[in-house]
Amino acid sequence: MHPWRRMLIILLLLIASAAVFSVAKDSSVLNFLPVKDRFSIQWGLVLLWAMIGVWLIRQLRHVVLRIASKSSKLDVRVGLLLSRALSAVGYAFVLVVALHLLQIKIGSILVGGALTGVIVGIAAQSTLSNLFAGVLLFTLRPFSIGNFVTLRTWMFSGIEYSGTVIDINWYYTVLMDGTQKRILPNSSILISAITIIADTGIQLYTLPLPYTVSAHNFEQALQQAVAGPATVLVREFGEDTYTVQVRVPTHVDRDVIRATLLQLRTQSNVSGEAANAVDTGSAPATDLPSPS
To answer: Over 255-271, what HEC string results?
Structure first.
């Protein structure tokens, strides 16, 4: 039998069973029985309903998991979450019907539960938003693990974050940018402009540069050091340094970047000391030719 048809049949059986037990509870035949026997029959109906309801909910969960495992577009974790959510709703339905069979008024319980749900929802707003965003990321799959992506949104104050996607979970997406690990909430990623870098032969590094080192000079020196393509992009400015993003081929060792930056910093420091010496008049004296 097709899984979707089986799931529909289970839902119809659950609803029909609830209707049958509700009609049996209100049967006029019970009014002619002693109170003790009527009480025993009510509890028997509740236990029988609970057994049937729990069995049907478990069957329904298995069908949902089977559908999720066969679907190529649906992530397994999404299927697991949907099955658990559906099971929770189903068990709540079984409990409500059981309370009805025991002639317990559930109106006040439902009102209290609704108020509690509103309070919990407000308190856990950020957590729930990240959770639902994670479900959408698993379902839509705008990118996958191993992609080089760049994220830009107003929540980051216009700053772009780039890196290799190394993990996507329910609440966060983890990017590896060189040696830096960036953990971004899923709710911010969902409203970001996402750029997927198709060239997998590129590795990205984000590092600070002193203002004494020019980004253009660093790019030229890096291209000479790696003997190939290398780009340096300015990302943001700080008090003493500004942040750049370096893109180099994957075969380039990070020590090459470190050595190139150290060389430029040394040269800028030497140039700065020479300029200070000239300004203070302490430049080294040179031998003048003797008069003839």
So the answer is: HHHHHHHHHHHHHHHHH
pTM: 0.49
The DSSP result for 58-100, as a single string, is: HHHHHHHHHHHHH-SSS-HHHHHHHHHHHHHHHHHHHHHHHHH
With CA atoms as reference, report the closest residue to 194 among 234, 171, 163, 228. 163
At position 272, the amino acid (one-letter code) is G
CB 129 within 8 A of CB 187: yes
CB atoms within 10 A of CB 53: 21
68-91: pLDDT as tens digits: 767 656 666 667 777 788 888 888
- Spell out the residues 6+ positions from residue 107 whose beta carbon is closer than 8 angstroms to its own: none
C-beta neighbour count of 212 within 10 angstroms: 13
What Å distances lie between residue 103 and 26, 183, 223, CA to CA? 10, 51, 81
